[in-house]
Specification:
Structural class: mainly alpha
Radius of gyration: 33 Å
Strand content: under 5%
Shape: flat
Number of strands: 0
Distance between the termini: 72 Å
Largest sheet: none
């Protein structure tokens, strides 16, 4: 009962704001505010607000939400463990069987991009022992700075 009253008050206030907005000759905004204002009263009239209020104060409904949350956590945990292990048990067994067979075909190597995968106009990356700013200096020299 309280939820329906609050929704009705919100709709009435929104319609009042829409009237003031229309009075200021901002008709498009007034129509948009009217549309938003009619949503709460429409929800009351369809019975959704009553259903939500009954659900919000029902211990059984909250227990159901808890069970759904627990199921979601379990699904996500099993997915994370599966990714860490490298696939499902069935996939791991198939990979182990393929590795045991000596006549198994090795996977194809990654395609080559030619002599070098780095474009010719790009400077070679600095080795770990050199100054960290050498690549930045090369960029600045390239742009004449």
């Amino acid at each position: 009962m309280i939820a329906e009253t609050v929704c009705s008050a919100v709709s009435a206030a929104g319609l009042g704001i829409a009237v003031v907005t229309a009075y200021r000759k901002r008709y498009l905004t007034a129509v948009r505010i009217t549309a938003y204002s009619l949503v709460p009263i429409g929800l009351v009239m369809t019975g959704i607000v009553e259903w939500l209020a009954d659900t919000a104060f029902s211990p059984t409904a909250w227990a159901g939400f808890g069970v759904l949350g627990l199921a979601w956590v379990l699904f996500m945990t099993t997915r994370a463990v599966e990714r860490r292990r490298g696939g499902t048990r069935k996939e791991r067994k198939a990979a182990a069987r393929a590795a045991e067979r000596p006549d198994a075909v090795a996977p194809a190597p990654a395609p080559s991009l030619g002599r070098s995968s780095r474009p010719a106009n790009r400077p070679a990356p600095a080795s770990r022992g050199e100054d960290d700013f050498s690549d930045i200096e090369a960029i600045l020299k390239k742009h004449g700075i």
